[in-house]
Amino acid sequence: MVNIQGGIRELSFKDVVAKYPQLPRLNILKTDVQRRGVFFTQETLNHVDSNQYQVTGANVFFSTLGARDLNCKSVPEALILRDGTTIIIDATPLEQNPYIIDYRDGRFVITDNDEEIEEVDFWEKPDYYGKFTSAGTQMDSVIFARPQRLNITPTSYCSFWRNGNGCKYCDLVPHLKEEGVIKNKLTPEDAYEIVREAIKQRGRFTTLCMTMGSDVNGATPFDRELEYYIEILQAIGRNFEGRFPSQVITTALNYDQLSRLYNETGISSYTADIEVLNEELFNWICPGKAEWVGYREWKKRLIDAVDIFGKGRVNSGIVGGVELARPNGFKTEAEALQHTLAEAETLISAGVAIVYIVWVPRPLSYFRDQKNASLEYYVNLTLGLNALTEKYGLTMDFDDYRRCGNHPNSDLLRISSGGRINGVI
Predict the structure, then answer these.
(1) What residues pair up with 420 in beta bridges, in sequence order?
(2) pLDDT 10s digits, 202-235
(3) Is there a single domain that holds both residue 261 and residue 157?
(4) Phi, psi of 79 (to 5 degrees)
(5) What is the total count of domains within the chain?
(6) pTM for the complete prediction?
(7) Which candidate, 105, 145, 165, 191, has a CA 20 to 30 Å from the CA of 416?
């Protein structure tokens, strides 16, 4: 493990692959590409056909506000590897030592120090992109696609920013930190029409996911957020019969709110991201979540959700590596890993699966000048969470490599068995 303050040399990608043969090479590569970011050569961009591939566009989750390189425009949203997994990427300036995406001999390739690491492709644009609803809404501005999932983003507003208590790693809606207004709110009819149009493309989508910023308003905090989810999901549900393959990512709702969400819609799985598995760091990094819910109550509500949605239908996400953020984070990666996995087990043993994303210190976030963890740290986090998931017999096919593609540890569930990882690519 690397000591954050001690300056011990980090292992390279090749070193980590050699040291951890129990993990697929492409899984390790995915993690490192997310960790370091990517830079697209001009030759690559010259060969990216925007009529064929998804490129960064109108959606709040894939704008230049969410990239490490704020000058980068119209680049592919994600990579596809040979094993079918995807890498949701961040355009990154060259001076930050990203991987390079180049075009060579008629192929797109990942390179490092001019050495070809792997051949890649990009997400293909679905048929509904570029179309408009009857109200004139550009469909892909509010519902964008992953290879097998529709991502529904009704509004980019998060009310935690009203008093400056947004999560410190987040730069998703910096344009709303001061304005405090809801923009581009999705209407139920638009949601219905877009999903109806998207599922006309047979075989493309297997599920949908809906998420937005937190809304503290209502007789009970988050009632208005809940009502909006119900309104949109009921409209979408007109396209299906009964319960449909789906996930919501909300603020941690209380038992009565969760019951309403489940009983009044066709939703089938539930996520409330706790972000960091330590109460003190949660209070520091996620002050809005701490103010309105609290760490222990957040965990309780996740466990309550298992009673309502069922085992294997509830999970929570963490921002892997943010537990090392200065000055209050853990001082060593070994300490961070030990405490994170111990806290994760308290939730996993109760039926709440844990997934992580790789922390990216973004230029418009509070943590913009920080450095994320070593590749070896993320590999051990992947192995540790996967071992706990198997120990307690959890599945999370609603948030796996086909449907989300943003979590290194959930990618392993398709190749692991009996508590160990099998197969090396």
Answers:
(1) 417
(2) 999 999 999 988 999 999 999 999 999 999 999 9
(3) yes
(4) -105, 155
(5) 3
(6) 0.92
(7) 145
